[in-house]
Amino acid sequence: MKAKNPDTSAPPTPQGPVPVRPLDELTIPPELDGKSGVNRADPVRLQITANTDADAIRCFLTEYDRSPGTYRI
C-alpha cells in the first residue's frame, strides 16, 4: 500500500517557521501541550509523572541521561 503524501498546501503559521530551540525555551500554548489529549493515560495508571507532552520528553531524557547519544542533538 502506497503512503499518502502529506498536504503541503497548508498555509504557514502566522509566526512563520520556528527555529530549533532547547525544550526549556519553548512556550507551548495550553491547547497544544497535550495535557487534555485523547492519548493520555488514566491518572490512576500513570507510570511517569508527566502531565504534558514536554514533561514526558523530560522524563525520557532523565531516564536516559547517562546514554551518550541522548543529548547529542
Number of helices in the DSSP assignment? 1
Biggest sheet layout: none
What would you report as the Rg, rounded to the nearest angstrom? 16 Å
Mean of all residue-level pLDDT scores: 80
Topology as a string of helices (H) and strands (E): H
Shape: flat
Quote the distance from N terminus to C terminus: 33 Å
Molecular structure report:
This protein is mainly α and 73 residues long. The chain has a domain at 23-63. The protein contains one helix and no strands. The longest helix is centred in the last third of the chain and has 11 residues, at 53-63. It is flat, with a radius of gyration of 16 Å. The mean pLDDT is 80.
Task: Describe this protein with a few key phrases.
single chain, 73 residues, mainly alpha, 1 helix
